[in-house]
Amino acid sequence: MKETAQAGRFDAPASSSHRLDRSLAFLALGCAAALSPAAFAAEWASPSQKYQMALEAQSVGEYTRMVALLREAGGADHVPAQEMLGMALLAGPTVYGEAVPTDRCEAGKWMRRAAAQGSELGKTQWAFLHRLRNAPSGEDVCQTQG
């Protein structure tokens, strides 16, 4: 090893040990991706890709994962994810079993966000949900739960 005069650092050629460490790190990363490719992919996916992964999760009955992916995509202002998540949370166990509890307040949040971005479906969903929440007392239960 020789010392570099300018930086006071040691310049060493890449040793076989260093290459082995890097190879092992890539191997470990590859194994992690192979063991959980969906989780690995979701970390780097765009909102649109997360929405597509949510549809795939739904098709194989992974409803908890579906909701998590929809929340991520919806949080990034992906309108179709917001629309779907609103309906999933409104339907809850009726459609998705115990994996997705009914949550009208959260459903309304996603429907409202979709509507605010110009979604006609979001506007229709929000109008429908608003009628449900205001009946029969006329109070918005999500506002009073506070």
From TrEMBL:
InterPro entries: TPR-like_helical_dom_sf. This is TETRATRICOPEPTIDE REPEAT FAMILY PROTEIN.
